[in-house]
């Protein structure tokens, strides 16, 4: 270069206009005038772009270099953010939101997912857009219940405002609700709201300044509401972003230095051209069919049918998405022309697809001077933003390639395809990568509120990927030995963070870890949503059961626990913190132990029907009692002659005895749980049968008290009397009821169960007529002394009925056996009264005297004023 020569950047060509102004520029000479950088910020109306030129001022010999050529062809443009409105409108989920023919999800659900994608729109922008929208439609700021609008969740307020004043009309033909018209009206209102939001979003992203960090040689964009660094693209990003430029051949006009950064190898040209072809293939679909295609392909990838071949899967996608209509003859000719550089559509083979999937995870070069497990100097928000952008681009590329593959396989004849194209294998490979990308994308698309202080006053929203996989990564990396600049490392750190875990071999285990974490943190809605991604494994089925329990779907939980039983009974316990130290020993020890654990889960939440079901299943898996007893007897016999047994035999017998005793205790524990559950749900016959099988006599006695009390409290005395209680249990039941009857009669309260009647019925049921007569006699004595006025009422037949019942009961004792021993009753009889013998003749005499008194009262022969304990007759 000579003195007086001018270096003029071709800004007219770069901006595609000759009306522009240079707002900012920065120059970095580099080290020893090598890799110098010139940054320009140019504005033309509302369009503002940044360009960078990297060049050497001196050659290797120290002489000046002619810069005219590189100044003319060596400029690189900074790609706009993926959060600009133009980029958002080309995103896959925006196309899904604008599609209106989705019967699975409503427009509101799709728009909410799009608008509330983490980091996409600020809270302030959404609130302001909602205010403007409500103001424009004259909507109130309070709810119908008087709740202030800002006290409701933002999602609910936006949904309510958009749906307000939209009527569900009826079809004139059959008077049925016109849901299609309603969905269209709703979609129009969402688009109106989005137009307001995009205006505010553009204002927030409006570029107001530029800064250059000379130490790190990194440029920053200053926007109205934030600042953002400019990072270096990865090699795969360069291929994807410049695919159309490479396909059209315009890349050849660029300087060798620029072309070398984009196209590192000869294979990169074919990769980039193939990306452009696949992208153009999917763009043949209109927005609504594109949305349908995305939904079907992702659903197929996440829930692959085990009985469906790859060919059948591709044909199903082809038919459901109507490829034949979307890609007509005109589109086919266009695709065929574009593929000329790739030897036509028939020249596409496995390598074209696999060359992309090998780099789809976009792993950057490894900087050996820097620890890979770092989050970068700019922290998690920057890494999350890069991760979201990378994963969304990867998802779109995989959808592009799947669309192209399905078209090739189903629309072209077999002889038109390359012999080196194996659609089935490529299909499986693409579906696997899409499944992995969807998992990662789901993690960066959902947030969890993290408490910053114990009091919960401050909190922040973290994506699930941050919460689960960023806790152990370093926040401030050491760059002393780094061989790359910060602009490259920002990309490297972020890509390593999102793709740091190779999930190809641990996909099932990783999904289990994620689902367990969601359940542990009680994120029920997120966990239910994650089930669409989770694979079908025994551990996942078990976790589904835990989730359904948490969500109150107990029957569904029981079914999923049963599905996982055969495998979970033999699998070692997972290291998930969801399992407590008390729960882990129940795994890998057979079905009985597993069912015991499941019954415990239901028992904790008092779902007794399911508790009983799994307790019974556990008991069915254990050996019967006679086998246990026989084994114990055999060991006892050997122990008596243990002096003749070798030491190993004695040790073996001792271990077996311990195992058998534990099994016995295990069965008693299960039977007690089964009894309590059956008793709680009113299955008293089955509960009593279980009670009889309990070996521990103390547990048996306490259980009998429990079932007696439950039967009485639930007014199931008739069922109680049907129970075959006999032997020692009958004596115990009698003593329990007698104690309750004594307390009840002594209290004198008319409310509560009539225990004396229950005891009378129980003793009569068991043939104990004298005992039944005894409790009836005590009741009679209490009646006679309880209320004199009630006793003197001739219309009150209570006493007469008790006398008759008592006489009949004593008569049932047999001839000459009609007697009972009556103990003195405190507060009824005199303190010095002794125990006396009462015969049936005594009762009959008292009964006749009672009838005589009633007859006199009926004839009016009684004193106006009584003078004693007994009624004085005139």
Features:
elongated, alpha+beta, single chain, 38 helices, four-stranded antiparallel sheet, 874 residues
Question: For the terminal residues, how far apart are their CA atoms?
Answer: 149 Å
Rg for CA atoms: 43 Å
**Which sheet architecture does the biggest sheet show?**
4 strands, antiparallel
Helix content: 55-70%
Structural class: alpha+beta
| β-strand number | 11
What order do the strands of the largest sheet run in, or round the barrel if closed? 1-2-3-4
Outline type: elongated
Strand content: 5-15%
Number of helices: 38
Mean pLDDT: 85
Poorly predicted sequence stretches spanning 5 or more consecutive residues: none
If you had to describe this structure to a student in words, what would you say it looks like?
- With 874 residues, this protein is an alpha+beta fold.
- Among the domains are: 68 residues, no CATH class; 119 residues, no CATH class; 259 residues, no CATH class; 90 residues, no CATH class.
- The protein has 38 helices and eleven strands.
- The strands form four sheets. A four-stranded antiparallel beta sheet has the order 1-2-3-4.
- A hairpin with a 7-residue loop joins strand 8 and strand 9.
- The longest helix has 34 residues.
- One of its GO terms (molecular function) is structural constituent of nuclear pore.
Give a nutshell description of this structure.
Residues 308-430 form the Nucleoporin Nup120 helical domain. The chain is of the alpha+beta class.
What's the structural blueprint in terms of helices and strands?
Blueprint: H1 11-15, E1 21-28, E2 36-44, E3 47-55, H2 68-73, E4 75-77, H3 85-88, H4 92-98, H5 107-115, H6 123-137, H7 154-163, H8 179-204, E5 207-213, E6 218-223, E7 227-229, H9 235-241, H10 243-248, H11 256-262, H12 266-283, H13 287-302, H14 310-320, H15 323-326, H16 329-338, H17 350-357, H18 379-411, H19 423-445, E8 447-451, E9 459-463, H20 464-469, H21 486-498, H22 507-520, H23 524-530, H24 538-550, H25 554-568, H26 591-604, H27 608-621, H28 625-640, H29 647-680, H30 684-693, H31 697-713, H32 717-722, H33 727-747, H34 755-765, H35 769-786, H36 788-792, H37 798-811, E10 819-822, E11 836-839, H38 840-858
Antiparallel strand pairs: 1-2, 2-3, 3-4, 5-6, 6-7, 8-9, 10-11
């Amino acid at each position: 270069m000579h003195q007086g020569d001018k270096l003029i950047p071709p800004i007219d060509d770069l901006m595609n206009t000759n009306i522009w102004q240079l707002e900012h520029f920065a120059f970095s000479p580099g080290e020893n005038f090598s890799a110098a950088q010139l940054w320009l910020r140019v504005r033309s109306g509302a369009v503002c772009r940044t360009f960078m030129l990297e060049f050497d001022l001196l050659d290797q010999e120290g002489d000046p270099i002619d810069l005219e050529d590189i100044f003319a062809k060596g400029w690189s443009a900074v790609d706009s953010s993926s959060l600009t409105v133009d980029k958002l409108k080309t995103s896959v989920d925006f196309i899904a939101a604008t599609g209106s023919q989705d019967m699975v999800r409503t427009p509101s659900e799709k728009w909410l997912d799009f608008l509330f994608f983490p980091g996409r729109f600020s809270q302030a922008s959404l609130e302001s857009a909602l205010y403007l929208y409500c103001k424009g439609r004259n909507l109130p700021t309070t709810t119908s219940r008087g709740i202030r609008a800002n006290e409701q969740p933002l999602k609910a307020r936006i949904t309510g405002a958009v749906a307000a004043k939209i009527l569900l009309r009826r079809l004139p033909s059959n008077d049925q609700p016109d849901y299609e018209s309603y969905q269209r009206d709703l979609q129009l209102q969402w688009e109106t709201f989005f137009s307001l939001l995009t205006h505010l979003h553009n204002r927030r992203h409006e570029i107001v300044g530029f800064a250059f960090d000379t130490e790190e040689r990194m440029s920053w964009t200053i926007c109205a509401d934030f600042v953002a660094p400019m990072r270096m693209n990865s090699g795969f990003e360069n291929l994807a972003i410049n695919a159309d430029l490479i396909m059209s051949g315009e890349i050849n006009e660029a300087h060798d230095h620029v072309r070398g950064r984009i196209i590192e190898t000869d294979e990169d040209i074919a990769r980039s051209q193939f990306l452009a072809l696949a992208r153009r293939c999917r763009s043949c679909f209109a927005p609504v069919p594109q949305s349908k295609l995305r939904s079907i392909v992702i659903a197929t990838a996440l829930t692959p049918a085990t009985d469906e071949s790859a060919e059948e899967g591709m044909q199903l996608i082809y038919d459901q998405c109507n490829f034949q209509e979307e890609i007509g003859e005109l589109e086919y000719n266009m695709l065929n022309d574009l593929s000329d550089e790739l030897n036509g559509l028939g020249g596409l083979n496995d390598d074209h697809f696999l060359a992309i999937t090998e780099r789809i995870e976009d792993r950057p070069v490894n900087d050996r001077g820097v620890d890979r497990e770092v989050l970068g100097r700019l922290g998690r928000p920057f890494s999350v933003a890069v991760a979201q952008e990378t994963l969304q681009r990867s998802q779109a590329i995989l959808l592009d390639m799947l669309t192209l593959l399905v078209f090739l396989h189903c629309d072209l004849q077999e002889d038109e395809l390359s012999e080196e194209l194996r659609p089935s294998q490529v299909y499986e490979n693409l579906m696997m990568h899409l499944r992995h990308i969807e998992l990662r994308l789901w993690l960066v698309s959902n947030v969890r509120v993290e408490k910053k202080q114990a009091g919960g006053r401050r909190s922040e929203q973290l994506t699930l990927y941050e919460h689960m996989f960023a806790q152990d990564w370093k926040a401030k990396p050491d760059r002393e030995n780094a061989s790359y600049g910060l602009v490259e490392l920002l990309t490297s750190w972020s890509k390593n963070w999102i793709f740091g875990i190779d999930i190809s071999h641990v996909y099932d285990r990783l999904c289990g870890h994620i689902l367990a974490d969601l359940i542990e943190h009680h994120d029920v809605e997120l966990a239910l949503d994650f089930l669409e991604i989770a694979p079908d494994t025994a551990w996942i089925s078990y976790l589904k059961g835990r989730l359904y329990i948490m969500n109150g779907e107990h029957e569904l939980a029981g079914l999923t626990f049963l599905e996982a039983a055969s495998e979970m009974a033999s699998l070692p316990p997972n290291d998930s913190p969801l399992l407590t130290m008390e729960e882990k020993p129940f795994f890998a020890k057979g079905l009985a132990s597993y069912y015991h654990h499941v019954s415990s889960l239901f028992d904790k939440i008092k779902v007794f029907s399911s508790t009983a079901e799994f307790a019974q299943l556990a008991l069915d898996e254990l050996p019967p009692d006679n086998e246990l007893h026989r084994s114990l007897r055999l060991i006892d016999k050997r122990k008596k002659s243990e002096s003749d047994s070798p030491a190993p035999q004695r040790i073996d017998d001792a271990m077996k005895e311990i195992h058998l005793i534990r099994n016995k205790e295990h069965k008693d524990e299960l039977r007690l749980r089964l009894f309590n559950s059956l008793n709680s749900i009113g299955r008293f016959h089955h509960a009593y049968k279980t009670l009889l099988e309990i070996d521990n006599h103390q547990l048996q006695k306490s259980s009998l008290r429990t079932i007696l009390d439950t039967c009485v409290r639930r007014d199931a005395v008739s069922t109680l009397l049907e129970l075959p209680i006999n032997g020692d249990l009958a004596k115990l039941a009698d003593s329990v009821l007698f104690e309750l009857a004594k307390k009840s009669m002594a209290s004198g309260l008319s409310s509560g169960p009539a225990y004396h009647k229950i005891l009378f019925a129980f003793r009569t049921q068991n043939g104990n007529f004298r005992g039944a007569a005894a409790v009836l006699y005590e009741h009679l004595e209490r009646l006679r002394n309880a209320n004199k006025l009630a006793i003197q009422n001739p219309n009150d037949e209570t006493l007469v009925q008790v006398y008759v019942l008592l006489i009949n009961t004593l008569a049932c004792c047999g001839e000459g056996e009609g007697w009972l021993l009556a103990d003195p009753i405190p507060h009824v009889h005199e303190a010095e009264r002794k125990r006396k013998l009462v015969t049936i003749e005594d009762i009959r005499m008292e009964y006749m005297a009672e009838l005589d008194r009633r007859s006199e009262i009926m004839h009016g022969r009684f004193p106006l004023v009584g003078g004693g304990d007994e009624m004085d007759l005139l």
